[in-house]
Specification:
The structure is a single chain. This protein is 26% helix and 34% strand. The protein is built from eight helices and 20 strands. The strands form five sheets. Strands 12-13-14-15-17-16 form a six-stranded mixed sheet. The chain is globular. This is RNA-binding protein AU-1/Ribonuclease E/G domain-containing protein.
Length: 330
Amino acid sequence: MIEIWTDTAPGERRAALVENGKIVEIHLQRDLRPILGQQATGRLDRKTPAGGYIIDGSGRELLIRKSVGSSEGAYLSYEITREEIAEPGRLKPAEAKQVESLVAQADPDQLWNRRLAMLAAEAEPEPKILDDLFDVALAGHSVAGNAIVHFQRTKAGLVFDIDGTGDPFALNSAAASEIARLLRLFQIGGMVMIDFVAMESKAKRQEVAEQFDAASAADRRSFERSAINGFGLMQVVRSRPRPSVLDQIFGTSIRALSDETKALWLYRDVARSKGFGIRTVTASTAVATLMLSAEWQTVRAQCERLAGAAVTVIADEKCSGYGHVHVAQS
């Protein structure tokens, strides 16, 4: 049985693909960022020998990899071919291709519905609260049998390390299946390095690699991998049209929630809050500044409409967690 669970809030949409009651994929869309398939018009800021950079309507820089015939300063129609991807310490700009003319514009709702339809054509989306989806991502590790699978983002890609006691082949076998599950669950793309427990037997290493392949069979994302070498290392390269769940919730930090994530989750809390009084959001200065920015005005308006009350944002560097929402009792 295949289901799609959805959880939509101002600025951020979540979905889980569920097979036989088990969540196998997590999908996020953040509406304030360029979305795969989105078309718009932007200004050609500068040309390069192999393409150029466009500035979109919100001031973001987009990369075009093919040569552009127009002169710098001209306005071009484009379509997003790869979304922005945040990595530790840097943000890779979205990539786009030039189009001759814009077709009927698809808004974030349409792009999201199109994405859900591609997950499972026969499944109807069912609204659910999906706050627990990110527990493993926040912990940075998972347990499979006697194997503990640790993972961490780096600029070069996602790195997995396997710990545990007992037979190395048994540990690696459990870890191979678990890593394949995590790659699909969090929609990981790009470079992946896996540090298995070292095994002398080449046949055993090949068997573990084949177990990884078998566990990855249901994953629609294409990938290539190396063999497991004598030190236990295996390299996997996966297609990367969108940022992973880890990229989106952590941004340019390694494991701390990004300011964008904190701001979106606070606005999510506002939208869910009950009562009739003013909603007061307390957050760090950086998060509060983001929430009050002009670019986020639409998100604030959506929150106020859903909550049925005005929203006030207060900056406080001493606030705990990612912030909190208070509902006035009047």
